[in-house]
Amino acid sequence: MHNENEEDLDNPWRRLSRRVAYENPWIRVDEDQVIRPDGKDGIYGVVHFKNRAVGVVPLDENDRVLLVGQYRYTLDQYSWEIPEGGVPLDEEPLSGAQRELMEETGYTAAKWQELGRAHLSNSVSDEHAIYFLAEELIPGTPRPEGTERLSQRWVTFPEALALVERGEITDALSIIAIQRVALLRGKSPRT
Predict the structure, then answer these.
(1) Counting CB atoms within 10 angstroms of each CB, which of 12, 109, 160, 189 has the fewest?
(2) What is the pLDDT, as a whole number, of residue 191?
(3) What string of DSSP letters covers 15-43?
């Protein structure tokens, strides 16, 4: 184990060159020629996201969480998650989260709290996520994007946490956000 000294905090990588290996409207994949921390030549692939990820834990007055389910093409399986999506980098994360909640569930919320920020896969990607708690929910009509065919499922907050603990919710942003709410409750239990 290293001590935290200035040498350990310096960047041990040296980029020699970068080329765009692939690009579409949502991501860019860069391939860098590098000198690795051990001094040897190497390559590093970096997935750059053109949007910021946002997630919302919608919690109603009965202590229930609204999950959305959809078939995830990348995983070739169905996934239950909190409402989430990509927000352009020039848009405020909160307004993007509010839009995602409305699009995916139809709900708006009168009370919002930022729960935290995370890097979702920092060994290969620069994807940055911000996640929120939404309360005092007001129903409306969902307006999912053309790439989404969503189901909705209300579960109690303890059941949402149990789905995480049993590995039935595997989406990283959902796991982080639900567990963050649980941690907040540990500091300030509901009455």
Answers:
(1) 189
(2) 41
(3) EEEEEEEEE-SSEEEEEEEEE-TTS-EEE
